[in-house]
Amino acid sequence: MNILILGSGGRESAFASKIAESSLLTQLFIAPGNAGTSAYGKNINLNPTDFEGIADFVLKNQVKMVLVGPEEPLVKGIHDFFLNRPDLMHIPVIGPQMHGAQLEGSKDFSKQFMIKHGIPTAAFKSFSKDTLAEGLTYLETQKLPIVLKADGLAAGKGVLICETLQDAQTELKAMLADAKFGEASSTVVIEEFLTGIELSVFVLTDGKSYKILPEAKDYKRIGEGDTGLNTGGMGSVSPVSFADATFMKKVEERIIIPTIEGLKKDGIPYKGFIFIGLMASDSPQGREPHVIEYNVRMGDPETESVLPRIESDLIDLFLGVAHENLAEKELKISHKIAATVMIVAGGYPGDYAKGKEIAGIENLRHSTAFHAGTVLDNGMVKSNGGRVIAVTSLQDNLFDAVQCATADAGRIYFDGRYFRPDIGVDLMELS
Ligand code: AMP
Ligand code: GLY
Predict the structure, then answer these.
(1) Residues contacting 3, CB < 8 A, separation 6+
(2) How far, in Å, from the CA of 62 to the mean position of ligand 2?
(3) pLDDT band at residue 220 using 50, 70 and 90 as cut-offs
(4) What's domain 123-192's superfamily in CATH?
């Protein structure tokens, strides 16, 4: 069958690489893709939110399944668009409809959902422009640090952790009264600050049953030792050593099952991935999971560590999602360990240059390069984004995976390139 992947990052490269292995694939298209995805399929110059353009392409090219990489087309309703068109409704879209996508599209919606279904999460209260004064007073009663979250999508920048009351009050005013994040901050969730270790848990569901995919840890800050500015993610590791059977049982019983059942009870259809961002907090009973956020897609750069560990045919699993017989499918997971090191442009996550010639991709010894922000220019691979190439190594132990991915990242060069040399090191100390 012909498959179309929407998106252009490292996540979509990892999907393309896995789907290209499937015996069920006839032709793969990636819209818009990057310099690396063209090794697995055909790049199509279409924006993932150009629904009409996608519809035309899908019909002309006998595409039989659409996998949506990023959240934006889902929150904007691409799945609903397909279901509402008689000529497209038979083509499965992997990714939820608008209603389910609100789990990521609205922090207030997702917090209300968690409270309603008894899913452990940080205490919170939401405020709008009309209740700004109450919000400012509420902040006076809260412990510090305190977390402010713009309700809507804010390109990953809508979460602020405030250390002082003054800072929190200034930011709340900026978000609600001065629309700091535009429409996205017309409602703000004020949330208790959780301490512990973060990890990402991924679930694939057909709306009836679910499969728990390999979990991963993401390294969010730009600097060594997880310091400096927040980024889209500087690397990842899967599995996560502390997410043992006891911890994952808590996650499944307290979070995953109530989430799937909650969607059913609320009449929210859901076919796709649920990415649960968790904080594992220390307690006398061991590590306790709390939900920080839901995303309605896979994580990036987590996907680059998660997919290499999946041994089952990904298209077959997606067919299970489409036909609502996921329960009958087998999910085989490798016991090997994957580490991903993200190579970024100098200056990222602030201003950075594009168009730098990239050398050495062919020199990787023990890893795979998943292109993220790259473009082909006259046959030359050039940088075209902040996160440029994810380097993933799958090995028998964490030490080797991290060593190989980091050494191979060093073999790729472009002017100003940077990567963190300490991905996975904290997990070695924990295990
Ligand atoms: P997000 O943009 O929603 O992914 O949030 C960015 C980051 O903010 C998360 O990955 C956490 O590191 C941090 N964060 C969000 N909510 C909380 C919270 N309640 N307590 C502590 N850290 C948080
Ligand atoms: N790595 C975090 C995300 O994809 O949102």
Answers:
(1) 19, 25, 27, 28, 29, 63, 64, 65, 66, 67, 315
(2) 32
(3) very high
(4) ATP-grasp fold, A domain (3.30.1490.20)
